[in-house]
Amino acid sequence: MHLTYDMPLYRPPSEADNLIIQATLGCSFNQCSFCSMYRSKQYTERALESVFADIHQAAAQWPEAHRVFLADGDALALPTPHLLAILRELANALPRLARVSCYATPGNIQRKSAEELQLLKQHKLSLLYLGVESGSDLILRKITKGATQRSMAEVLAKAHASGMKVSATVILGLGGSTRSEEHIDSTIALLNSAPVTYLSTLQLYLDESIEAEFHKKFGEPFRAQDDLAILREQEGLISGLNPPQNIVFRSNHASNALALAGNLPRDREKLLIQLHEAMEGARPLRPQFMRGL
Q1: What is the pLDDT of residue 3?
Q2: Torsion of CA 22, 25, 30, 36, to 10 degrees
Q3: What is the DSSP letter of 126?
Q4: Average pLDDT over residues 38-45
Q5: pTM across the whole model
Q6: Which of 193, 187, 184, 58 lies closest to 131, judged by CA?
C-alpha cells in the first residue's frame, strides 16, 4: 500500500493486516492523562473527497481487501451521514468488504441513537474498539477518562443491542500500587455486568511527554508497579471474570510483559497456569526493550 498517512498513525494489533483509511485526524476527546497518542494533532474531520480519494487509491492497489479500519482516534465522532457516506463508498469500491471497524470513546457511543448505531452496523461498521481502562469511578476520574462505570456499562450494552461487537481494553497498573485492588475489583464488576466480545489488557506505559500531567491529575502519590505486581493484577482479573457472554481474551499488545490468549471463562485455568509459571520464573517475560505502544 502506498497511501500517504498523516502521522502518527495507530491501530489495534488485530488490524495489522487490514486496510487503514483515515476518516478523521487526531482524537475528539484527547484528554486522557495516560495517552499521548494524538497530542501532536488537532482533531479534524477529513473532507469526504479526500477520504474517497484514499479509498479509490487503496481499492486500485488492493481490490480484494475485505476488512477496513477507520482511523484516527475515533471515527465514530463523525456525524452519522458523513460516516455513512464513507461506509457506502467503501462498499462500492471493495466488493469483498466484510467488516469495518474503528476506535470509539464512551461519549461517541452515547451521542449516537440506537437507530444510528443499527444503521451503521447495516453498512458493515460492526466492530468498535473501546478503551474501558478501568471500572473504578475514582480511577476513571483521576485519568480524566470522561466516563463512569455506569456510563461505560450503558454504552457497552447499547453497542451490543445494535448488533455491534466491542473489543474492550483494560490497562493493568493504572491504579498504581495503592489503588490496585480497587482497580481490578471494579473492573471485574463492570465486565461481569456488561457484554463485550473481545477483551485485551495493556500494561501502563507513560510517554515522558505526559508523565508530569498524569501524576498531577492523579492527585496523590502514584507508585508504579513492577512486572510481578502487574501479573498479580492479571491473575486477579482472569480469576474474577464471569462475563454475561463468552469473551475472546488477549494480552498480545506490545506493552505487556506476558502474552496470553484464550477464551473466558473456558480457558481460565490454562491462562492462570501460564501466569503462575511466569510469576515463578518458569515462563519468560517480554524484555523491556521490546515493549512499547
Answers
A1: 87
A2: 80
A3: E
A4: 94
A5: 0.95
A6: 187
Q: How far apart are CA 41 and CA 48, in angstroms?
A: 19
Rounded Cα distance between 289 and 45, Å, is: 36
Is the Cβ–Cβ distance between 178 and 209 less than 8 Å? no
User: Which amino acid, residue 246?
Assistant: N
The answer to whether the CB of 257 falls within 8 A of the CB of 286 is: yes
- Residue 157 corresponds to which cell in the numbers above? 450494552
Looking at residue 1, its pLDDT comes to: 53
Residue 288: DSSP 8-state? G
| Number of residues written out for the chain | 293
To which residue does cell 474517497 refer?
A: 52
DSSP code, position 165:
E
- Beta strands in 30-71, from DSSP E residues, in sequence order: 44-45, 67-71
Q: How far apart are CA 152 and CA 169, in angstroms?
A: 12
Instruction: Find the CATH number of the domain harbouring 29.
Output: 3.20.20.70
Compute the distance between CA of residue 206 and CA of residue 15 in angstroms, rounded to an integer.
23
* Domain range enclosing 36: 13-284
The answer to whether residue 292 sits within a structural domain is no
3-state secondary structure of 276: helix
Q: Which pLDDT tens digit goes with each residue over 62-110?
A: 999 999 999 999 899 999 999 999 999 999 999 999 999 999 999 999 9
Domains: count for the chain: 1
